[in-house]
Design brief:
Distance between the termini: 34 Å
CATH topology of the domain at 103-348: TIM Barrel
Radius of gyration: 30 Å
Number of strands: 21
Oligomer: single chain
CATH superfamily of the domain at 103-348: Alanine racemase
Number of helices: 24
CATH architecture of the domain at 103-348: Alpha-Beta Barrel
Largest sheet: 10 strands, mixed
Length: about 650
């Protein structure tokens, strides 16, 4: 059977391959060489972009099932995190060398992007290799970083965000301890507190300034940059800071100037303008006597979620090398024009580092279809059995259209069935059509719609008037996960994440569908999918096989999603499994972090599970007393209840 496709594609009457699936789902684009399809038709992670050293996701899920770990599972690819750090390091090293730039480059990983301990420990472990550090934006993050980096005094720590006296005192004491820690001043009151605490403890603090640029970001987070941004100092306030520090003979403590355009900057031109402006602000601070030695260009380095390499909100029209080249070149030019030393360059490229490192794998638990074949003989018999004045004409019209459809009358049939469907719904709403006839009209409509799409695509193109039909005909695949917990940005800001089956990719998908999660919320669905520049509202999927699991994956989830996820319907954290390439080129499982149990999520919303068990036990004993339950049944019920409290929050 030829496959339904979106209007950009035509029918393919040949053997389907994994390469076809890689192109269909965009793995060759958004995967950036880190994800592909192997000969078994499985999605594989290639942390080193080497087919001989890969992680077969379907094999991993099978291996976890053997160990009693069921989906949904968040897979973290430890090697891939390291490779992204290395890619960033190499890009800036190359740019620095080519421009003969005199300063150094370092990245401080923003803890807010993904605060999971194991991920932070990986960054820490690689400090000696890459020379990177951490950015902390709150007191909890700062305390975590200080404890984590014990014994690594040279590791750079940058503190952003609003700061109270306790936060600033902690920073000053950390500096006295010998830490390489910089306080970025977001508002003038913070500077007063910082100078007071530094004077009290006899510390010469490292001070940074976050400045408000006239340049703005773009996309979903453009409001975090520009003159109206939440954080940062205006140029008038910057001059006040300089005067304040000069009066206290602390102008030499002003070491860093910082800006932030926003997250996921998709157009490189926005960086070009902002970095040039920041470079001249740095030069002016040097002219005014500040001993600035570093520029922090903030975050914003984008991820090409849709693989289009474009200026769309879910993409980025530049490479990591172009990003590094532009930053180094523009800062160098600003400094040489002003005849000031080249500063060290710091970036906070958390999304770039973390996004690729995680993928959620989940199983499909059911499906709703809207194109089942109608039983024409039965429908006609039921129709003719009705009294003549109760026989709805729209059903006759739909039966006629079903019988008469051919390649030459597709548009006419389309108009006829749309009219008949609308009339049928009106008749039912006014009480002139029974339920059996309404069901018959729906079945005929779906079947004719499918036939229209198939015949049109065989002719080479789906007419514009038919554009809505594939979505109307699409299945609903019910999936064992919570959008609100595992991909909250998909729900909250309609962020695109790549989604595809992790197996059966050597089979041509024959269904079109949208995904619904297992929450009872109507927003718990995904109905926008990666399709190069054209976002699509349906996903090509395989027909379900009786008794066989069907697994899908959501990719590039490593940035922000884990901590932003909520407990909607009390679905908790999924299992997390760290997996990496072993010495033989295969894969091995590292740490396994069990997902939340029902006990644990109930405790988070202030339930006492012991009290719950006492309540159930009381009801059970009353039921035994009234002979509604036997003693054996009561024991079984209590065991079932207690086992449920210890169980996974997802379907098992």
């Amino acid at each position: 059977m030829a496959k339904l496709k979106t209007k950009k594609r035509t029918f393919i009457d040949r053997c389907w391959s994994g390469e076809d699936s890689a192109n269909l789902y965009g793995l060759t684009d958004w995967g950036k060489g880190y994800f592909g399809v192997n000969q078994a038709g499985h999605v594989c992670c290639l942390p080193f972009k080497d087919p001989e050293r890969s992680i077969d996701l379907a094999e991993v899920i099978g291996g976890l099932a053997e160990r009693g770990i069921q989906t949904p599972v968040l897979l973290r690819f430890d090697d891939l995190l390291e490779q992204r750090l290395e890619e960033l390091r190499k890009a800036f090293d190359r740019a620095v060398a080519e421009e003969k730039y005199q300063g150094k480059y370092s990245c401080v990983y923003p803890v807010k992007v993904n605060q999971q301990r194991i991920l932070l420990e990986q960054v820490l472990h690689l400090n000696e290799k890459f020379g990177f550090g951490f950015e902390a934006g709150s007191k909890p993050e700062l305390l975590a970083v200080l404890g984590l980096t014990a014994g690594q005094n040279d590791m750079p720590i940058v503190c952003n965000g609003f700061k109270d006296a306790e936060f600033i005192e902690t920073v000053v004491l950390a500096a006295k301890l010998g830490r390489n820690i910089t306080t970025v001043v977001e508002k003038f009151s913070e500077l007063r507190l910082l100078v007071e605490q530094a004077t009290l403890y006899g510390v010469r603090p490292l001070i940074g300034l976050r400045v408000k640029l006239s340049s703005r970001g773009a996309g979903r987070w453009e409001g975090s940059g520009g003159l109206r941004s939440k954080f940062g100092l205006t140029m008038s306030e910057v001059l006040q800071v300089v005067d304040f520090l000069r009066e206290r003979e602390m102008l030499d403590c002003l070491k860093l100037v910082h800006c932030h355009l926003g997250s996921q900057i998709h157009d490189i031109r926005l960086f070009k303008n902002a970095i040039t402006e920041l470079g001249f602000i740095y030069a002016e601070l040097r002219r005014l006597g500040a001993d600035c030695t570093a520029i922090d260009v903030g975050g914003g380095l984008g991820i090409d979620y849709d693989g289009s390499h474009s200026a769309s909100a879910s993409s980025a029209n530049y490479s990591i090398q172009e990003y590094a080249d532009d930053i180094v070149y523009r800062i160098k030019n600003a400094c040489e024009d002003a005849k000031v030393p080249h500063p060290d360059i710091v970036s906070e490229s958390g999304r770039f580092i973390a996004a690729f490192s995680s993928a959620l794998v989940f199983n499909v638990v059911g499906r709703t279809r809207f194109d089942l074949e109608p039983e024409v003989k039965r429908i006609r018999a039921e129709l003719e059995a009705l009294p003549h004045d109760q026989q709805p004409q729209p059903v006759f019209d739909l039966l006629a259209a079903y019988a008469e459809i051919n390649d030459r009358n597709l548009l006419q049939i389309y108009h006829d069935v749309m009219q008949a469907r609308d009339e049928a719904m009106s008749l039912f709403s006014m009480g002139y059509m029974n339920l059996e006839m309404r069901a018959a009209s729906e079945q005929l409509f779906w079947t004719i719609g499918r036939e229209l799409v198939q015949r049109s695509l065989k002719k080479g193109k789906l007419p514009d008037e038919f554009a809505a039909l594939p979505e109307m005909l699409s299945d609903i695949y019910f999936c064992n996960f919570s959008v609100f917990q595992s991909a909250p940005d998909s729900w909250a800001i309609e962020q695109l994440f790549p989604i595809c089956p992790i197996h059966r990719l050597d089979e041509q998908p024959t269904r079109l569908g949208v995904l619904a999660d297992i929450t009872c919320d109507s927003d718990g669905k995904i109905d926008h999918f990666v399709d190069k520049r054209d976002e699509k509202s349906i996903l090509e999927l395989h027909d379900l096989k009786e008794g066989e699991p069907y697994y899908l994956g959501i990719f590039l989830l490593g940035a922000y999603q884990e901590v932003l996820g909520d407990l909607h319907n009390l679905f908790g954290d999924t299992h997390v499994v760290h997996v990496r390439v072993d010495d033989d080129g295969g894969w091995m499982i590292g740490e396994i972090i069990p997902g939340d149990t029902i006990n644990e999520v109930l405790a988070q919303v202030e339930f006492d599970t012991e009290a719950l068990k006492r309540g159930i036990r009381k009801d059970v004993e009353n039921a035994v007393k009234k002979k509604r339950l036997t003693v054996e049944e009561s024991r079984a019920l209590m065991a079932f209840y207690e086992r449920g409290l210890r169980g996974y929050t997802y379907l098992e």
